[in-house]
Design brief:
The protein has 275 residues and is α/β, with parallel strands linked by helices. 37% of the residues lie in helices and 13% in strands.
Length: 275
Amino acid sequence: MSYENLGQGALDYFPCRYGKSKLLFRGPRKKMEAEFIAMIGGTETYGKFIEKPFPTLVGDAMEMECVNFGCVTAGVDVFSNESTVIEACSKARVTVIQAIGAQNMSNRFYAVHPRRNDRFLRASTLMKTIFREVDFTDFSFTKHLLTTLQTLSGERFSIVRDELKEAWIVRMKLLLEKIEGKTVLLWFADRLPEDEPKTESLGRDPLFVDRRMIEEIRPYVTGIVEVVPSAAALAQGTEGMLYSSLEEPAAEDMMGPMAHEEAARALIEPLSRLL
């Protein structure tokens, strides 16, 4: 069910901040005074359009405070550079890190906004040299940029894609090394890491992340949980999601409540063993 006429958005996410962080997280704000689980990740962890995303479901089922540090369209860098989040995760009994895409982080080819990581800021000299025909002032978002580059030249685009893949591995290792304590990497997508995207476009998140990359960081985490929602969950589309009419295109690109329920169920047993 969608709330089509709620102009400003159908859900109140109770946005909140922690410590000195400038990032807005999904609330209500947690106290983190007793034992807790921390979860960091992108739009899926935040639970955009979802009344009870998997961090909430896990916390309810395990009867333990679960702090949602998900950020909409986040890249790896936003967490690596956020001391408040790193400190909180190091105090948690266990931290779940969603495997997020490689497109929304600064690299040798382009820079992104430090907090709104899907925002393209500028192209490097190297990028301008490889794609001389492109006017980079036309782009505001990384996905638009990368889709255009892929259309222009698959061969040249592959150079950028390979850079993003290698940068993702390095940044993930850096992030995981900063977090003290137990960590679980969560793969939550409509495909397995070894599967090719189901479309000819860039595909769905986590963009460009594959099995080799997951295995590269395996030694840096305590465990890995892979969740590919069932056919029934994926077939639900936007059913059960809460969004305004303007948000419908974005909602159609997200996984719904049943997928979040399946992710929560997959996490509960591994997390229980680590507590």
